[in-house]
Write a structure and sequence with these properties.
about 325 residues, alpha+beta, Alpha-Beta Plaits, 7-stranded mixed sheet, 14 helices, about 45% helix, about 10% strand
Length: about 325
Amino acid sequence: MGGMREKRVKIDPRIEASSAHLVSRTNNRERCFNRREKAKLLSLMRQAEEYCGLKLFTHAEMINHPHALAHNPLWQKDPDDAELIRRYRVLNPGRQTKYRSKNLEVIAAHLEANTEEGIEWRRRQVAQMGDFSQFMKIVKQRFTAWFNREHCRTGTIWGGRFKSVLVEENSNALVKMAAYIDNNPVRAGIVRDPKDYAHSGYGEAVAGNALAQRGIMQLMEVSTWEQAQAEYRKLLYAVGTIPKATGRTISIEEFEKVVGEGGKLSVPEILRCRIRRFTDSVVFGSTEFVAKRLEIFVKENKRKRPGRPRPMPPVTDWGGLATLRGLRQP
């Protein structure tokens, strides 16, 4: 018998805003996402982003997995009925048939009269909003349905649960996580410069996509794309850092060897290497942030203390960042 599913570390948007790195891989890591599949994944993420009330800082659609760095803003109040219907239309953008229009008219009438049906419909919609898990559920389920129709197949294409890393709401942690995501195609040996990969937030932004530019501007906390690009690119591109054709992984052993020899790598060099702590941790941020999220998780779930914040390996200046790895079962 398998163990119980571990609860995710989350923050209620009615209490505090939060951000998370989300990634899901295909079953057996099957390499099945080509140009059309990557474009469809992004289209679905954009629909789910608006429906759920989230914001994408950046993203990267790879051959067998998508990445997203998403922000869940603080909720001042639940969306009103007009906003719920608008978001419902965004999530279901198909041709407006007579039946579909009539159905929405019926829903609107139930909401206005506050009938049991209207109350239940309202509850179901709100329950799917402001939640990273619901965002990923919508994207994965809808992509599976589309992919199966396109390729005349059945069954899921995903290899289990998606991974999520809660990222502290500050520029240091968020920017480094974003740069790690946008450097995925460089690590995979697909391109030498992340701007040349069309299926990523940075690649889209450089090509002129306003939504992608806005995400990176919000990430960098500046008001113009020119400012955001100038600062963000410093992290993304390191002259002389050339990826191998098979990608590049830095293990903990290699980190320790570099440190033991007194060597240091620049942050851009590090972010062009695959470091599992960016994808396999539970929380990423300052030591204080990680410790606080751990304390709340233990208290809410009545757990024995499952661990402690782990500082990032001292191979570069991380600016005091730490991680929390997997949590033990009760």
